[in-house]
Amino acid sequence: MSLLRRLLPDGFTLALLATVALATLLPCRGAAALWLDRLTDAAIALLFFLHGAKLSREAVLRGATHWRLHLTVFASTFVLFPLLGLLLRPLAHALLTPELALGLLFVCTLPSTVQSSIAFTSIAGGNVPAAVVSASLSSLLGIALTPLLVGLLLAVQGGAGAPLQGVRDIVLQLLLPFVAGHLLRPWIGGFVDRHRPLLGLTDRGTILLVVYAAFGAAVVEGLWRSTPPLALLLTLALDAALLALALLGTAFASRRLGFARADRITIVFCGSKKSLAAGVPMAKILFAGHAGGLGGLLLPLMIFHQLQLMVCAVLARRHAAQARGTAGDDTLEAD
After folding, report:
1. Which residues are listed as membrane-spanning (predicted)?
2. Helix H segments across 221-275?
3. Which domains, and CATH codes, for the chain?
4. pLDDT in tens, 116-174
5. Residue 117 and residue 122: Cα distance in Å, rounded?
């Protein structure tokens, strides 16, 4: 029963599905869509401001000594994944719609998650302080590296690279609020730490808001008429292949590099994930005005998000069970 519960969609995934359904039935149009776009920009800036305020310098200093571990995670996130995207690109172009194929490449450019990477590392008995630093710094590096990787991958596939304006907008809308929040942490950090649920609500609420706006605009442009059900199933298969290759690659590399068990767990869980919280705002900025809309482009990321949660939950409990000398997952309670 524990395994079955972990394989079922969580509450946030159900909220995402409900948001997509709402955007399909009641998309925002005209002047209301313009106001919604401005609201999402403000919500994204607030989200990154709060993330900056949450990251403590003490945590960075505590984990900075594990530089080999961090370099391994960053290599997986920003080198291995883009290479896997290029490896799967011929299949994606042959089997998927152009928007879904582009969305799959976009997944490969994103930074790692923060909350779930740390949570799964903790459950599995990994190096939690190193996971905090690796995941947090990955998100920060992604602000600069993701636009560059998007431009590189699009150039390789024969399209136009990400424009400099997109990089500038990433800095203005994401990096500056993040830095401002971090600089103000001595004054507001205590409030943010005491109200972590507020950050969670802002995080999820912003994603849902951007997803509603993106899918509503795409529905108006004919998203579901141009996206066959078979293409969605094939997207699921390619996302699963991408995740499996990343998990195998990080596990193999961390073992060959001689890391201790706790560090290997951290590398696998931090180096195999992609951030929905960072990906949705970045897509809105980098692909503003994209002819196919953002709805189809975000579908591979949403599918990958759910896959990584389900698979990593099972793996984390298996690691924990092995550490306890047990035979299965049932000795562990839910989070």
Report:
1. 40-57, 69-88, 100-120, 132-154, 166-184, 205-224, 230-253, 265-287
2. 229-256, 261-271
3. 2-321 (1.20.1530.20)
4. 888 888 888 888 878 878 888 888 888 889 988 988 887 655 444 444 566 677 777 78
5. 9
